[in-house]
Amino acid sequence: MYRYDEFDAAFVAERTQQFRTQVKRRLAGELTEAEFKPLRLMNGVYLQLHAYMLRIAIPYGTLRPDQMRMLAHIAERWDRGYGHFTTRQNIQFNWPKLKDVPDILDALASVEMHAIQTSGNCIRNTTSDPYAGVAPEEIEDPRITAELIRQWSSLHPEFTFLGRKFKIAVTGSEHDRAAIKIHDIGIQIVRGPDGAPGYRVLVGGGLGRSPFIAKELRGFLPKADLLPYLEAALRVYNLHGRRDNKYKARIKILVHELGIEEYARQVEAEFARMDRAAVAAPAEEVARIAAYFALPELPARDTEADAAETRRMAAMEPEFAAWLEQNTAPHRVPGYRAVTVSLKPIGGAPGDATAEQMRVMADVAEHHSAGELRITHEQNVVLPHVAEGALFKVWRALRAEGLDTANKGLVTDIIACPGLDYCALATARSIPVAQDIANRFAEPRRQREIGPLSIKISGCINACGHHHVGHIGILGIDKAGVESYQITLGGDATETASLGDRTGPGFGYDEVPGVIERVVDTYIALREPGETFLAAYRRLGMAPFKEALYADH
Amino acid sequence: MRIIDATGPIDDLWPRIGAGEPLPEAGRALVERDRLGEALASGLELGLHLPPDTEPADIEPHFGRLAMISVGFPSFADGRGFSIGRSLRQRGFLGRLRASGPVIADQFAYLLECGFDEVAIPEEVARRQPPESWLSQSAAITFGYQRGIAGRGSILDQRRARHD
Questions:
Q1: Nitrite/Sulfite reductase ferredoxin-like domain: which residues (chain A) (predicted)?
Q2: How far is A100 from chain B (nearest CA, A)?
């Protein structure tokens, strides 16, 4: 994992000191509220419905145990004992006081963390694959690229006052777990003509009120050209992106209005003209970063004995067996698994974790996962390097804190934005909708029978809950003072990305669990053996679902 | 309006010619984009003011005649001027570069790094934000990560130097 050197440490310390000064200058009237707002946003501080909210960056979702423990400490000392993991692999605290924020930032800096650019019209936290460095089919660990982008995008003098926020995601695998096609820029590590890794660059994806799937900007970009190419892409956007309307200011609108060919022509012209060598990262620097992401030394295990022991425990404990099946994934090193810790207990708030749960995850990671944790954009936590022989112990430790829900990728593994319970932009509740649906499908056997199914809920059209790309998407809006929920079907955030189709008129708050159940029952009745919900929807189309939902309306 | 550069407050050496005002006989003049043709034909030492929707490439042919370029920032939140400044420098403009408008002290470091030499800020901003704030904010972060920009050194190059 990446470690700060003296330069990174000084940079973050100076930035924290700068924010402390900015708060003072705001209080002294030197900065107006309008001037202070983007400065506090670029340090992660939002003004929400009830209080300030602090969003802390977890670059590409990777955390060390001491960092997770610091998050627990912050939750207890300055918040209400819990935090909320987000779809950007970050964590946010919903109840800090503005006067405490500089102290919180100091506490974060002591464990090599910060809140830089977690909000504001700038380049946000670069996200990545939670199985980075673990997935057997991966070409290269995408976090090397993501860390390079983190550094390059931090306080970039040219791109810190963009027309709108800018999100970048990187995947090193063909199977996309980083949702690159719904990002402003999506980067896929691919092999070039000579077999050397390089990048496929996508642009103009995004959700919100005008959802788009990203288009290909460059089929193959040599690795050394990454930063100059990003500068060219951002410069064209910064100069020409719309600034007349906040809702048309993302790069997806520029790409849509110019057309991908014209946008690509402008980027390539800028790229060809600029002094690329002056901007690119030196090869030694890339090598320095890459060394931090080498696979940790995983002790050799007696894999057969481990597997036998795990099988024996699974036979005795059916709940362990279900968890093993659902929440663990293959690892490139034989005898190891990547474990998903579900933050979606039935009836809980998706993505929330208490300080005690954070400490347990930190302890387990320290003893059983080579000191590493990952936050996923699905709002869960991954322990990437668990020996098969330790799985039962890990499960028991997690179970003690209610972290053993065996529902990864199932109907109750719901993504939801904070919604009207916290957010100033929300027009409807989302967390209680997620809780009601989870309660409706609580029975574990039924969840497994239904199979892979992602439900994503947003409490307003800004789509922080990614509803457009949920297999089932739920969008809460305000209709003349009453919450109304629109349902979409067939969305997908992976390499086969698609936007969901609306079923028709929306439903009332109380109707939603029943509506989802009718959609699921229709799928169960019509599916072919082994066919997932998404595959069935793509084969069947909307008609049978529409019939089931509206026939008797 | 007040002019501040990396050393602090300085005098405004560039009289801006208002719409309909005649160009001076001699000396310096800061003219609007729509009077560039007329100004180029004069013998004046020229400054050119650009609105934020300017295409930097369109100005490049005139670099030889321009001693100064002023880039308009309609608000501190409109960051197009950062890219205009950097593009002008990358295209080889060597004259004085000014950011004109209600930018704030907290942006001074970014402006300097994008190739600007000075800011021209409204009195209202200058009253609230004293020159000391501009100077201290410009030095708030010693080293940044980006390469190929003006001003402060890059962390990436510092690291390389350490290994040499």
A1: 52-110, 347-400
A2: 21
* Architecture label for domain A6-109: 2-Layer Sandwich (3.30)
Cα distance between residue A324 and residue A270, in whole Å: 51
What distance in Å separates the CA atoms of residue B111 and residue B150, rounded to the nearest whole number? 9
Task: Order the strands of the B96-100 sheet from edge to edge.
Answer: B8-10, B2-5, B118-121, B96-100, B66-72, B45-50, B28-32
Contacts of A338 (CB under 8 A, 6+ apart): A130, A131, A134, A328, A329, A330, A331, A382, A383, A384, A385, A386
> Within 10 Å of residue B37's Cβ, how many Cβ atoms?
8
Please indicate if any CB of chain B lies within 8 Å of the CB of A10: yes
User: What CATH number is given for A415-550 in this structure?
Assistant: 3.30.413.10
CATH of B2-163, one of 3.20.20, 2.40.160, 3.30.750, 1.20.1740: 3.20.20
The encoded tokens of residue A242 equal 């719309």
Q: Do B133 and A25 touch (CB under 8 A)?
A: yes
Contacts of B87 in chain A (CB under 8 A): 235, 239
Do A161 and B109 make contact, defined as CB atoms within 8 angstroms? no
Pairing relationship of beta strands B66-72 and B45-50 according to DSSP bridges: parallel
The C-alpha atoms of residue A431 and residue A424 are separated, in whole angstroms, by 15
- The encoded tokens of residue A88 equal 């950007």
Closest of A523, A407, A509 to residue A457, by C-alpha: A509
Topology of A133-292 in CATH? Sulfite Reductase Hemoprotein; domain 1 (3.30.413)
Nearest-CB residue to B79 (from A160, A278, A282): A160
Which amino acid belongs to residue A490? Answer: G
A303-399: CATH topology: Sulfite Reductase Hemoprotein; domain 2 (3.90.480)
Q: What residue segments make up the domains of chain B, in order of their start? A: 2-163
* Complex ipTM > 0.95: yes
DSSP string, A125-190: PPEE-TTTTT-TT-SS-HHHHHHHHHHHHTT-SSSSS-SS-B-EEEESSSS-SS-GGGSSEEEEEE
Domain extent listing, chain A = 6-109, 133-292, 303-399, 415-550
| Interatomic CA distance for residues A467 and A437, integer angstroms | 15
Distance CA A384, CA A365 (A): 9
Compare CB distances from B142 to A14, A162, A281 and report the shortest one's residue: A14
Instruction: For residue A49, give the DSSP letter.
Output: S
**Minimal C-alpha gap between B24 and chain A (Å):** 33
From first to last of its 164 residues, chain B has per-residue pLDDT tens of: 999 999 999 999 999 999 889 999 999 999 999 999 999 999 999 999 999 999 999 999 999 999 999 999 999 999 999 999 999 999 999 999 999 999 999 999 999 999 999 999 999 999 999 999 999 999 999 999 999 887 778 999 999 887 66
For residue A132, count other CB atoms closer than 10 A to its CB.
28
Structure tokens at A382: 């991954």
